[in-house]
Automatic annotation (TrEMBL):
It comes from the Eukaryota. The keyword Protein biosynthesis applies. It holds the Pfam family EF1_GNE. GO terms for molecular function: guanyl-nucleotide exchange factor activity; translation elongation factor activity. GO terms for cellular component: cytosol; eukaryotic translation elongation factor 1 complex. This is EF-1 guanine nucleotide exchange domain. Residues 138-224 form the Translation elongation factor EF1B beta/delta subunit guanine nucleotide exchange domain. Belongs to the EF-1-beta/EF-1-delta family. PANTHER family: EF-HAND AND COILED-COIL DOMAIN-CONTAINING FAMILY MEMBER, ELONGATION FACTOR 1-BETA. Keywords: Elongation factor, Protein biosynthesis. Residues 103-129 form the Elongation factor 1 beta central acidic region eukaryote domain. The lineage of its organism: Eukaryota, Metazoa, Ecdysozoa, Arthropoda, Hexapoda. The keyword Electron transport does not apply.
């Protein structure tokens, strides 16, 4: 589609329709065709020409120096689009065997490139997420270890309890808590990884020290 002389109302109307689905006169970047047409306009397009006005405001945002760097192209008043040449900085150097870069790729090529970039970003995100360490579920437990009587060696009983080693088990602070009649119970804290340590099994292991331990109860249990 072409348009008429933008200095006339009819030409401006055609120009507005022409820009309905376009950002620039040619391709996907501004060219000298945009500069020539911009200079041809006698006044800013009225609000009744929204596409022409949007284009005008966009082109006017470039400085004169920037406009001089636009690719070559002539104003297409009722004529076939002129061949647009890339600026000198983008031309292929003499003897360079690389393929020319198509600055004006088709919509299909642009869509393919957008899909490729999106897929690369999604893959990078998935790779990053897969390398992120998984959250390990843990629990903080306070155990009440009760002795047989007041003659039980509490120091040895604690040493026996702490001698239990399991992957995912860490023993913490402990204290003796009076229960009456001169008898103390051992209250000891530990942190366990839920996937590795069974609390029931831990209680059973402690109760195996029959010379010292009468029973084991859970005083507190918190997920961390």
């Amino acid at each position: 589609m072409t348009f008429g002389d933008v200095t006339t109302e009819q030409g401006l109307k055609e120009f507005n329709s022409y820009l309905e689905d376009k950002s620039y006169i040619y391709g996907f970047i501004p060219t000298q065709a945009d500069v020539d047409t911009f200079k041809s306009l006698k006044k800013i397009p009225a609000g009744s020409y929204p596409h022409a006005l949007r284009w005008y405001n966009h082109i006017s945002s470039f400085s004169d120096a920037e406009k001089k760097t636009f690719a070559v192209g002539s104003c297409p008043f009722k004529s076939a689009p002129a061949t647009i040449q890339a600026p000198a900085s983008t031309k292929k150097a003499a003897g360079d065997d690389d393929d020319d870069v198509d600055l004006f790729a088709s919509d299909e090529e642009e869509d393919a490139e957008a899909i490729r970039i999106r897929e690369e970003r999604l893959k990078a995100y998935a790779d990053k997420k897969s390398k992120k360490p998984e959250l390990i579920a843990k629990s903080s437990i306070v155990l009440d270890v009760k002795p047989w009587d007041d003659e039980t060696d509490m120091k040895k009983m604690e040493e026996s309890v702490r001698s239990i080693g399991m992957d995912g088990l860490i023993w913490g602070a402990s204290k003796l808590v009076p229960v009456g009649y001169g008898i103390n119970k051992l209250q000891i804290m530990c942190v366990v990884e839920d996937a590795k340590v069974s609390v029931d099994l831990l209680q059973e292991e402690i109760e195996k020290f029959e010379d010292f331990v009468q029973s084991v109860d859970i005083a507190a249990f918190n997920k961390i």
